[in-house]
TrEMBL record:
InterPro entries with a match to the protein in the record: Tetraspanin/Peripherin, Tetraspanin_animals, Tetraspanin_CS, Tetraspanin_EC2_sf
Protein name: Tetraspanin
Family affiliation: Belongs to the tetraspanin (TM4SF) family.
UniProt KW keywords: Glycoprotein, Lysosome, Membrane, Transmembrane, Transmembrane helix
Subunit field text: Interacts with SLC19A2. Interacts with NTRK1/TRKA.
Function: Structural component of specialized membrane microdomains known as tetraspanin-enriched microdomains (TERMs), which act as platforms for receptor clustering and signaling. Participates thereby in diverse biological functions such as cell signal transduction, adhesion, migration and protein trafficking. Regulates neuronal differentiation in response to NGF by facilitating NGF-mediated activation of NTRK1/TRKA receptor tyrosine kinase and subsequent downstream signaling pathways. Plays a role in the inhibition of TNFalpha-induced apoptosis.
GO-annotated cellular components: lysosomal membrane; plasma membrane
Keyword Membrane on entry: yes
Transmembrane segments: 12-38, 58-79, 91-116, 214-238
SUPFAM superfamilies recorded: Tetraspanin (SSF48652)
Lipid bilayer topology: Multi-pass membrane protein
Amino acid sequence: LSPGAKMGCFTFIKVMMILFNLAIFLSGGTLLGVGIWVKVDGQSFLDIFGALSATVLQVVNVAYLLIAIGAILLVIGFLGCYGAQKESKCLLMMFFSVVLIIFIAEVAAAVLALVFTGLAETLLTGLVTPLLKEKYGVEDEFTAIWNTTMTQVHCCGLNNYTDFNNSYFYAKHESYPMQCCDTNGPCNSTLAAEAKVQGCFKQILEEIRTNAGVAGGVAAGIAALEIAAMAVSMYLYCHLDQK
């Protein structure tokens, strides 16, 4: 290519980099703002989007997720947009590094999820089951989270109703949570065994497998965007001296 063509290509890629990351930055700011709004004034959010959220607690959980994602997108968008605009090799390298770290973390999480599903269940059982025994029925927020999860996913405990054996809740009420028997009345061991309500881990895993195609497509699309973003940032980084 002639010097003019190379310059035009560089300028085009730079502009695309700026616009793409500006969109990411604005999206991150929007998500962060909505997350803060939901956290501070969840009730007004429920009044508008009540059909999308069953309880205030769910909205609070969504708020934390929106804030985290929004903050990450803000950082990525700022580094990419400002770095391309100012033609800063330092910011472009920081952008590349942040996206690379996120990409590696996503790949590692996917591999672990596929290879060590059984190990993940064992680790979760060792960590979550003691918390169910100690905090369910004691801490309102923890109890509400599990009640919402068990009701909507139609599950009981992490593995099954036996997770509540020797728990504070069982000692106080002499019964299991009603979701374990799929009934509004007292839930004893006989009814729970007959109901055979699966644990939440298995139910969520089945939902993920059912929607594996959609989840895989979304993950592949995100990975492709990340690879493209890294390639463009590295192109700008390497061609700044040749500009």
